[in-house]
């Protein structure tokens, strides 16, 4: 029986060439799997037909936008996930979703191998292979670009030799990955970290310096999940799409950073994540209102570790699963509304309200009606500072 390889298929040059390349190198049949994570571009039926025309024996396409929004983007939002305090895990979030579909396809089609088009310098190779190791450890992995010397020049020559139906004449100066949660741009002149990004780098966001009226909106949350905009109930997918549109129109979510890659090198990355950045800002502020202090302090460390695990390709790890439970519990009372103004590249919270609020006006006010007994503060400070005071007296005595 002929072996089968499931290929993570994008419809572009490298993965289209990989279909024939894998067949020649291994003698295996190729099943192409393309996943729509909200990246836009070509129609999925066009992508499917191209895979078949390039020699795939089967081509599977899946519209996974709702799944991506609900099961990957929303958990990241609840974790306020910002790698290195800035990057909202745009590409890192889509990889475990793709891996899940690859593993499912491998089981369904009886494949013994899975292939991806990642290079040996990036994070995605780790995310794909670590995820597959967790979900389907028996599978072998093929990485033609990394392991078989399938350079772009060789890929173009192969496509021309075989007459593959793929346009090889146009080459963007950038490497771009995008999905529902944002857009990542690298390479080209951006590899000189002194060069500033120019306007044609951006696609999801308008120029934040252009004059325009501010946009005010109210985002409703239930248990840490955004459920409405301006009082209209929406699905997670609809909310992220709407926030991308409105925050993007105000230039919100542009990020230019030098990032620590998992493989040990630093990389200059430019991101656009208008909806993600605005929603995380709103969620963080509602947590400030509804989450008890010690829980909030501890959660900030958990959030950082959760983001690192996802960035590092460990979505399916036991620790990530355990942290999911903590984060869900911590979001149990994160219900209410946040008023936000989008303008000039910023998403600024201007109001918050919640039935689960821990803010007590009568305790917080400095005006008449204050119920806070300030006389208690003196004894509290004496006890709180006692260890430091005793240590200081000891040091003076011994000096």
UniProtKB/TrEMBL annotation:
The keyword Amino-acid biosynthesis applies. Belongs to the argininosuccinate synthase family. Type 1 subfamily. Coiled coil: none annotated. Pathway: Amino-acid biosynthesis; L-arginine biosynthesis; L-arginine from L-ornithine and carbamoyl phosphate: step 2/3. L-citrulline binds at residues 87, 123, 127, 175, 259, 271. This is Argininosuccinate synthase. Homotetramer. L-aspartate binds at residues 119, 123-124. It comes from Nocardiopsis mangrovi. Its EC number is 6.3.4.5. Its main location: cytoplasm. Keywords: Amino-acid biosynthesis, Arginine biosynthesis, ATP-binding, Cytoplasm, Ligase, Nucleotide-binding. ATP binds at residues 8-16, 117. Residues 4-165 form the Arginosuccinate synthase-like N-terminal domain. Pfam families: Arginosuc_syn_C, Arginosuc_synth. GO terms for molecular function: argininosuccinate synthase activity.
């Amino acid at each position: 029986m002929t072996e089968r390889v499931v290929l993570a298929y994008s419809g572009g040059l490298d993965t289209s060439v990989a279909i024939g390349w894998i067949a020649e190198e291994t003698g295996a049949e190729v099943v192409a799997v393309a996943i729509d994570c909200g990246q836009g571009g070509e129609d999925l039926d066009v992508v499917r037909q191209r895979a078949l025309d390039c020699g795939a024996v089967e081509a599977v396409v899946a519209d996974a936008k709702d799944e991506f929004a609900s099961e990957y983007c929303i958990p990241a939002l609840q974790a306020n996930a910002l790698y290195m305090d800035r990057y909202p895990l745009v590409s890192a979030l889509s990889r475990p979703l793709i891996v899940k579909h690859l593993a499912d396809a491998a089981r369904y089609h009886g494949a013994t191998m899975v292939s991806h088009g990642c290079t040996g310098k990036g994070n995605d190779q780790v995310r794909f292979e670590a995820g597959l190791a967790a979900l389907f450890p028996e599978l072998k992995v093929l990485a033609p670009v990394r392991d078989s010397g399938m350079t772009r020049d060789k890929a173009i020559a192969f496509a021309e030799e075989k007459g593959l139906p793929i346009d090889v004449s146009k080459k963007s100066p950038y490497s771009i990955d995008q999905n529902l949660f944002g857009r990542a741009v690298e390479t080209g002149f951006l590899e000189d970290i002194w060069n500033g990004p120019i306007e044609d780098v951006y696609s999801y966001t308008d120029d934040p310096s252009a004059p325009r009226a501010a946009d005010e909106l109210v985002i409703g949350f239930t248990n840490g999940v955004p459920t409405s905009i301006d009082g209209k109930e929406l699905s997670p997918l609809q909310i992220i799409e709407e926030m991308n549109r409105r925050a993007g129109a105000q230039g919100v979510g542009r990020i230019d950073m030098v990032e620590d890659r998992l493989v040990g090198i630093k990389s200059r990355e430019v991101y656009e994540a208008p909806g993600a950045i605005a929603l995380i800002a709103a969620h963080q502020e509602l947590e400030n209102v509804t989450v008890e202090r010690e829980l909030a302090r501890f959660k900030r460390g958990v959030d950082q570790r959760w983001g690192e695990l996802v960035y590092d390709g460990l979505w399916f790890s036991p620790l990530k699963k355990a942290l999911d439970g903590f984060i869900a519990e911590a979001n149990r009372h994160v219900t209410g509304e946040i008023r936000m103004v989008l303008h000039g590249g910023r998403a600024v919270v201007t109001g918050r309200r919640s039935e689960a609020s821990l803010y007590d006006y009568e305790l917080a006010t400095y005006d008449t009606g204050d119920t806070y007994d300030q006389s208690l503060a003196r004894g509290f400070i004496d006890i709180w500072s006692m260890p430091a005071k005793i240590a200081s007296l000891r040091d003076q005595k011994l000096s």
